[in-house]
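Quick log. Single chain, no ligands specified.
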Amino acid sequence: MDFFNAINVSSSALTAERTRMNLISSNLANANATRTPEGGPYKRKDAVFTATPVENSFHRALDGATAQQVRQVQVSRIVEDQNPPRMQYDPGHPDADPQGYVAMPNVNVVEEMADMIGATRAYEANVTAVQAAKSMAMKTLEIGK
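-> predicted structure:
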């Protein structure tokens, strides 16, 4: 893997993890939203990651000469959680049904916080990988001195 492939792979992961973090933030912000433009409570959203081959002319030229398959990550789609809403008894709420239950979003705050920690750690790991690739390139340039 050349220097630019390493940077491209890590930068694709940074972009994907940023999307994941944005979705987690949205889920947390709407954890109590009982109304949406589509109707009903907010539905939790999650990103689906896909590994895709790195596309560049240099890699294609050496396709048969290298045994490694370089892949980057990409957000292929964003899906809504299909679990039913959480029913909470609150007869005074304006969105309560005749029995006094309110359909609340299917967002588990503890699960979202755990996902946020995972996304943060993955982001940090990829920043470290970019820094390591940059450091390796700088050390290579110092050989000629």
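The chain has a mean pLDDT of 88.
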